[in-house]
Design goal:
alpha/beta; Protein-Tyrosine Phosphatase, Chain A; UDP-N-acetylmuramoyl-L-alanine:D-glutamate ligase; 9-stranded mixed sheet; 6-stranded mixed sheet
């Protein structure tokens, strides 16, 4: 009998991939990155335009990999090392992911949306882990490599599997959803994101609807009732064979209906109507967007048959995730400042939400509200317009200083009133010194930008507790 804690045996992988194994082995994990190898992992080297994972097999084995999949001869590897020869390692990863899904009796959830999908996936994983064994993809492993890898990690005895599905082109979600084959498909919302690759938000909505292409027949769709594309998405779900559509939002017809909420600097109190009764719960994640996200989470909890009230009351224990609104108190000379790390990624909706969170926070005596904003990428022909539209939101939020990185944010600065001080740099590492020079005790600092803007470099420097304070003026 196979140990339920083992993920894969060589015999199982041979059967799935059609490969040939030199030895028998049992893997307790799977990795495609030699830097993250854990003892017991199966290593699957992926060839790419810059690096070929085959060149790192020796390093993976030294770190404790039990075996490696290979598609070509590898020099310098001892003959007695366990290898599984296949024609294509990428295809092998796909087959392993499909195999993990096919053998699982878990309730499988697919999560997508223009914003909020990673946070919702993480929250679902946390809350459902309190009611069974839940597995979910780490970080944003939501692409054509990350999704099959996450499925390959699905434990044999999991009760719930939660998988984030990302896309920036039409057709991507169809493939990912058909691998995941969700019992429940959630679309958090449809907004103007990745517009560089779409001619309109209508096209984005149609691309998001591709998640239903893999929905198990009779499965459940979870949709935002307040979104303008609700009717389009609902029809797409039903046409694909969904047996049920559950809606959330403040709309009167929502099954999980928002009645009221109160925002504060630490989170919010949320009142919801569900199943003809009202209940209230607390969120430890600040922001209006998290109120809406929490409704999506509870609707999904209900769809997989878990306890909704228990999940709602457990929300208070979930804190903001790294790079996604996480709060830090950083000591500096003569005091401290507050840092909001929202540096992982950005689009117009998420930046607006982050600025609103900042607006709810009251700086300490002599402190200021400070924004450090990097360009939002993949916005296409409307990029400048979408960036400049943030100026009014920044002004309304009573922000005192704005640091910007990238050409689009520079253009946005010209739209700000003269009362707001600004400083610009072409690269994120170039903005760090003027920012450090400007910091004062009591400041509240928001860092936000698309991943490729590398705003995480700013956060990493600000997290250094040995920052020396050197206050200097900033000129418009």
């Amino acid at each position: 009998m196979t140990d339920p804690e083992s993920l894969w045996t060589s015999e199982e992988v041979v059967k799935l991939t059609g490969g040939k194994s030199s030895k028998y082995w049992v893997a307790t994990g799977v990795s495609i990155d030699s830097r993250t190898i854990e003892p017991g992992d199966l290593f699957i080297p992926i060839p790419g335009p810059n690096f070929d994972g085959h060149n790192f097999i020796e390093n993976a084995l030294k770190k404790g990999a039990v075996a490696s999949v290979v598609s070509r001869a590898v020099n310098g590897i001892a003959q007695d090392i366990p290898m599984l020869k296949v024609t294509d390692t990428i295809q092998a990863l796909d087959e392993l992911g499909r195999g993990g899904r096919n053998r699982s009796a878990a309730n499988i959830i697919g999560v997508t949306g223009s914003v909020g999908k990673t946070g919702v996936k993480e929250a679902l994983g946390s809350l459902l882990s309190g009611q069974g064994r839940a597995s979910f993809n780490l970080g944003s492993y939501n692409n054509h490599f990350g999704v099959p890898l996450s499925l390959a990690h699905l434990p044999r005895d999991a009760d719930y599997g939660i998988f984030e599905l990302g896309m920036n082109h039409s057709g991507e979600l169809t493939r990912l959803s058909q691998i995941v084959r969700p019992n429940v498909a959630l679309i958090t919302t449809v907004e103007a994101a990745h517009t560089e690759f779409f001619s309109s938000t209508d096209e984005i909505a149609l691309a998001k609807a591709e998640i239903f292409d893999g929905l198990e027949k009779g499965g459940t769709a979870i949709l935002n009732r307040d979104n303008q594309y609700f009717d389009l998405l609902r029809l797409a779900a039903l046409s694909a064979g969904a047996g049920n559509v559950i809606s959330f939002g403040k709309h009167n017809d929502s099954q999980f209906r928002l009645i009221d909420f109160v925002l504060d600097s630490q989170g919010s109190s949320v009142k919801v109507c569900w199943d003809n009764s009202n209940f209230t719960y607390q969120l430890s994640m600040p922001g209006r967007h998290w109120v809406q996200n929490s409704l999506a989470v509870l609707a999904t909890v209900y769809a997989v048959g878990a306890n909704v009230i228990e999940a709602a009351q457990s929300f208070v224990n979930i804190k903001p995730f790294k790079g996604r609104g996480q709060f830090h108190t950083i000591p500096i000379q003569d005091g401290y400042f507050e840092l909001i790390d929202d540096s992982y990624n950005a689009c117009p909706v998420s930046v607006s939400a982050a600025i609103e969170v900042l607006s709810k926070l009251e700086p300490k005596t002599l402190g200021r509200r400070i924004c450090i904003l990097g360009d939002m990428k993949e916005l296409g022909a409307n990029s400048t317009e979408l960036h400049c539209a943030l100026a009014d939101k920044i002004s309304d939020a009573l922000v005192d200083i704005v640091f910007t990185v990238g050409p689009e944010m520079r253009r946005m600065c010209y739209k700000l009133p003269s009362t707001i001080k600004t400083e610009h740099a072409d690269r994120s590492d170039e903005i760090i010194k003027p920012l450090l020079d400007a910091l004062k005790p009591g400041d509240i600092v928001l860092v936000k930008g698309s991943a490729s803007s590398q705003m995480s470099k700013v956060v990493d420097r600000l997290m250094n507790p040995n920052i020396e304070l050197n206050v200097s003026s900033i000129k418009k």
